[in-house]
UniProtKB/TrEMBL annotation:
This is Lysosomal Pro-X carboxypeptidase-like isoform X2. Keywords: Glycoprotein, Hydrolase, Protease, Signal. The gene is LOC113869582. One of its GO terms (biological process) is proteolysis. It comes from the Eukaryota. Belongs to the peptidase S28 family. It holds the Pfam family Peptidase_S28. One of its GO terms (molecular function) is dipeptidyl-peptidase activity.
Length: 449
């Protein structure tokens, strides 16, 4: 999938992208996909930790290129996968396998953060598998991240078609190794990983009986979804939270430019926003604020609802009544007690560097079945999601107040009823897939008696 560079004609439509915000050298891109917000964790509930002794780490000797037959195609690298055996009914039970597809990040924390698998494993007696995406974490070809991302020839193997072929090879390996030949597999992913799960079911239907694709914007391509789709949802989220908050944010961009143009204006802004280092240009502050706004909208999870947290700070105006004081109050409300609030130093991660290179369009979409496309309409990426049933077994499950990948995170007692019902609906569909698999399998055995 391509990150859209949004042109100024689209940016006029939404408050976070006010036309004065940009110069010829600064255009906006849609934030990367991820089931969990890694950029900011201060307002999220901590995940319930899983005993690490229950998670076993394995490595599979993966080939570099699944689709060509040149000598270099057979170069191998170690691809990591994790297995949780705690709930498994064993090979003889033909119990199902839930396979979570790692996306644009290491899988170290996936067993904790993607709680949907653990929450439901016992009722299925399921084996839980987590597979890391090539070029991330410890699954890096060519010996190092630097070599893997060195040039076009090495980066060329970094795409979604190769990734889902990796997953296929590892699942075949696991079923052979554990003697689970008769166990149905359901693949699960969130965000980009949800796209991979849906594509996997389309391309390898013989390996998975179904797929749960959470917050998967599979329609977010040029000429399918409007370029402003993501930010139009962000705008709606803030307007629904507070019209006065929305108006304050809209006005703030021109006010930041006005102050920045004053003598020592950047120093004034650096002081007022308690930046981690002096600002060199107004864009640095604007970019930091933009990221805060869009990530809060994308991960607007209950019970805290970060958009409401920001707007509560802005509308409360605890630092003064002028526009910039209100904006700073929103920053403090969101980021909490940190030593500095804006432009903290960061290093380019394997996620942000690699994400620019992935070519998701390499995966050819085919007609398929047994896929759940789940979305929360408060998630900006839902603008590129499947929101209506395509057929009787290509199903859309969405909630009006849901946010990015909320359904596959761990359940807790504070979950609203609509979220509980969404998960129940997904589980019911998955049980139907598995029941049909067992019925077909028994019928097939009967024909060979």
């Amino acid at each position: 999938m391509k990150h859209h560079s949004l042109s100024s004609k689209w940016l006029l439509l939404v408050f976070l992208t006010h036309s004065t915000y940009f110069t010829a050298t600064h255009t906006l891109t849609i934030p990367r996909l991820s089931p969990v917000a890694e950029w900011e964790t201060t307002i999220r509930d901590p995940a319930v930790a899983i005993d690490k002794d229950k998670i076993k780490t394995f490595y599979y000797k993966q080939i570099l290129d699944h689709f060509n037959y040149r000598p270099e195609s057979y170069t191998t690298f170690q691809q990591r996968y994790l297995i949780n055996f705690e709930y498994w009914g064993g090979a003889n039970s033909s119990a199902p396998i839930f396979a979570y597809f790692g996306a644009e990040a290491p899988i170290d924390n996936s067993p904790n953060t993607i709680g949907f698998l653990v929450d439901n494993a016992a009722s299925f007696n399921a084996l839980l598998v987590y597979i890391e995406h090539r070029y991330y974490g410890r699954s890096v070809p060519f010996g190092s991240r630097e070599e893997a991302l060195k040039n076009g020839s090495t980066i060329g193997y970094f795409n979604s078609a190769q990734a889902i072929a990796d997953y296929a090879a590892i699942l075949i390996h696991i079923k052979k190794k554990l003697h689970t030949h008769n166990s149905p597999v359901i693949v699960i992913g969130g965000s980009y990983g949800g796209m991979l799960a849906s594509w996997f079911r389309l391309k390898y239907p013989h390996l998975a009986v179904g797929a749960l694709a959470s917050s998967a914007p599979i329609l977010y391509f040029d000429n399918i979804t409007p370029q402003n789709g993501y930010y139009s949802v962000v705008t709606r989220d803030y307007r629904e939270a507070s019209e006065t908050c929305y108006e304050t944010i809209q006005k703030s961009w021109s006010e930041i430019h006005r102050v920045a143009s004053l003598p020592d204006g950047l120093s004034i802004l650096s002081h007022r926003f308690n930046t981690c280092k002096p600002l060199n240009e107004a864009y640095e502050l604007m970019e930091d604020l933009r990221l805060m706004y869009v990530y809060a909208a994308q991960y607007n999870h209950p019970p805290r609802y970060p958009v409401n947290v920001i707007c509560g700070g802005i509308d409360g105006a605890s630092f003064g009544r002028d526009i910039l004081s209100k904006i700073f109050a929103g920053v403090v409300a969101y980021k909490g007690n940190t030593s500095c609030k804006v432009n903290a130093p960061t290093n380019a991660s394997e996620t942000t560097v690699g994400w620019k290179w992935q070519n998701i369009k390499l995966v050819l979409q085919r007609f398929g079945s047994n896929i759940i496309f789940s979305n929360g309409l408060r998630d900006p990426y839902s603008s590129g999601g499947v929101l209506e049933n395509i057929s009787d077994n290509l199903l859309a499950v969405h909630t009006v107040n849901g946010s990015h990948c909320l359904d596959i995170l761990r359940a807790n007692q504070s979950d609203p009823e609509w979220l509980v019902e969404q998960r129940k609906k997904e589980i019911k569909i998955m049980k139907e897939w598995i029941a049909q698999y067992y019925a077909d399998f028994d019928a097939l055995k009967g024909t060979h008696k």
